[in-house]
Amino acid sequence: MKIGVVAGTPVDTRMGSNVLREANIDNLEFPLSKNAREQTLLQYSGQEYIENATAMAIKKAIHNNCDGIFLYCNSLSSSIDYKKLENNFKIPIITPLECYTKYSKEYNTLAILSANGNSAKEIERILKDSNKFNNSILIGNMMLVESIEEKLLAEDIIDVLALDSMVEYLEKVNYNNNKVEAIILGCTHFPYIKNELKKLTKLDILDPKDDMIEMLKFKLNKIA
């Protein structure tokens, strides 16, 4: 089995590749952009444009005998109709977005930490579709993505972006007895700071990567 990893930048593409390697899954990398800024511009170029760019990456993966696509990018997944691409190319496509239905059933009040507003909005939509009582606090922060791309130390990122203050705020929220129960890492860059976030809070930190592996194996077994 060989999987094509498609993501926004070489950094998150490599992160997705590492996730698959840890699960002993062979893979090839297909980044769409050179850096986070270029990726952001791509996402706001319109759905048709970005779907064409993603389709080209999928074609390359298929040409290289990949059996499935690991779309390791929330922002990219939120900007395209990946189910249409899955149907068109007849190849399983796994995205982080498919994990959020599970979270909405386990938690009522969630903070969504994402790269931008477009991604956060799509995650919130999925949560609401699954649980109409879900309450969400949306936080988009492209500077967090850029700092990870620049390879700043995780503890320094916490400091320069005041993420300790962000966590403190989330812990204090208490509206009509609705308290934040967990923080969703709504960007595939963000596991980079997961351990540092865990040091700051007792709130659950939700990282979809493990669920993505299970869904990938399930889809591949269905077509085997």
TrEMBL record:
Domain of life: Bacteria
SUPFAM superfamilies: Aspartate/glutamate racemase (SSF53681)
Record's signal peptide: none
One Pfam family of this chain: Asp_Glu_race
Protein name per Swiss-Prot or TrEMBL: Glutamate racemase
